[in-house]
Design a protein that fits this description.
The complex is a heterodimer. Chain A is 0% helix and 55% strand. In chain A, strand 7 and strand 8 form a beta hairpin. In chain A, the strands form two sheets. In chain A, strands 2, 4, 5, 9, 10 and 11 form a six-stranded mixed β-sheet that branches. Chain A has a five-stranded antiparallel β-sheet with strand order 1-3-8-7-6, with no helix packed on it. Chain A is an all-beta fold. By secondary structure, chain B is mostly beta strands. Chain B is built from no helices and eleven strands. In chain B, the strands form two sheets. In chain B, strands 2, 4, 5, 6, 9, 10 and 11 form a seven-stranded mixed β-sheet that branches. A four-stranded antiparallel β-sheet of chain B has the order 1-3-8-7, with no helix packed on it. Chain B is globular. The chains are: A mainly beta, B mainly beta.
Chain lengths: 107, 112
């Protein structure tokens, strides 16, 4: 079983759509959770941390379910600039990245 | 937000040679990391460094690899006797105590 598993994608959506990404992790001792975005051939950039209570940052909402070892990211009113690969990251000392889900937002 | 910088941006080396990749972190962060990303694959953790010591390392980080912070600012990754399969993007990152990390732009290593 992969340590961090994400929707394989790709997701192709029109501008303004709502899109949801899912992620599961295998290490129940994991302590911190994040979503990063990575543009083609660029470095990962922190999008948001994920807290047990859920958190929102503008159009982005992240949820964590520790019991199910499940993390989600919801993007509302998607923009062309949201096109990227979204990486689920889980930390328990080291950092484990999912393979990423590619999102393309089209006009 | 100040940026982490890495040099060189691209390094080409012959198999068996040693390479040193450099990272200039933002000041005030105490946690440093190296990752690699083979083309088309996921980002893989190599090593974390805290208080001038290795705190965690992955199974990838074997005796071929070493890290240093030689002058208290630059953070280096040395790869001895490079192999073809070491070709990848190498990212350094620095982070906070809550594990939020800020990545440099990466060094593309090509081993021929």
């Amino acid at each position: 079983r992969k340590e961090v598993e994400q929707d394989p994608g790709p997701f192709n959506v029109p501008e303004g759509a709502t899109v949801a990404f899912n992620c599961t992790y295998s290490n129940s001792a994991s302590q911190s959770f994040f979503w990063y975005r990575q543009d083609c051939r660029k470095e990962p950039k922190l999008l948001m941390s994920v807290y047990s209570s859920g958190n929102e940052d503008g159009r982005f909402t992240a949820q964590l379910n520790r019991a199910s070892q499940y993390i989600s990211l919801l993007i509302r009113d998607s923009k062309l600039s949201d096109s990227a690969t979204y990486l689920c990251v889980v930390s328990g000392g080291d950092m484990r990245f999912g393979a990423g889900t590619r999102l393309t937002v089209k006009p | 937000e100040p940026e982490v910088t890495q040099t060189p941006s691209h390094q080409v080396t012959q198999m068996g040679q040693e390479v040193i990749l450099r990272c200039v972190p933002i000041s005030n962060h105490l946690y440093f990391y190296w990752y690699r990303q083979i083309l088309g694959q996921k980002v893989e953790f190599l090593v974390s460094f805290y208080n001038n010591e290795i705190s965690e390392k992955s199974e990838i980080f074997d005796d071929q690899f070493s890290v240093e912070r030689p002058d208290g600012s630059n953070f280096t990754l040395k790869i001895r006797s490079t192999k073809l399969e070491d070709s990848a993007m190498y990212f350094c990152a620095e982070g906070t105590a809550t594990y939020e990390q800020y990545f440099g732009p990466g060094t593309r290593l090509t081993v021929t």
